[in-house]
């Protein structure tokens, strides 16, 4: 269950990272409020998952999911640049996330 919570926290991190762009430097009220709410809930869920997943693993997986998702959404939604090297780096992050899950001793 902790891994499911952690994955959900990572998805929320993608949401609040996208909100940073949509809030326009925290100058737009609704995106700012949503961004802050997503950030707080995301961090809360990481804390819950860290009860049974090592904190270093939980944090790295959470940040990795957020980073990969934010890059992909940035490319798709905001037409950010895409290159072979950029995608290779994203692949390395995914490999790290998978590797941490595989070596973790928790269920």
UniProtKB/TrEMBL annotation:
Pfam families: Multi_Drug_Res. Coiled coil: none annotated. Gene3D superfamilies: 1.10.3730.20. GO terms for biological process: xenobiotic detoxification by transmembrane export across the plasma membrane. It comes from the Bacteria. It is found in: Cell membrane. Its main location: membrane. The chain crosses the membrane at residues 29-47, 59-78, 84-103. GO terms for cellular component: plasma membrane. One of its GO terms (molecular function) is transmembrane transporter activity. SUPFAM superfamilies: Multidrug resistance efflux transporter EmrE. It is a multi-pass membrane protein. Keywords: Cell membrane, Membrane, Transmembrane, Transmembrane helix, Transport. Belongs to the drug/metabolite transporter (DMT) superfamily. Small multidrug resistance (SMR) (TC 2.A.7.1) family. Gdx/SugE subfamily. This is Guanidinium exporter. It comes from Roseovarius nubinhibens (strain ATCC BAA-591 / DSM 15170 / ISM).
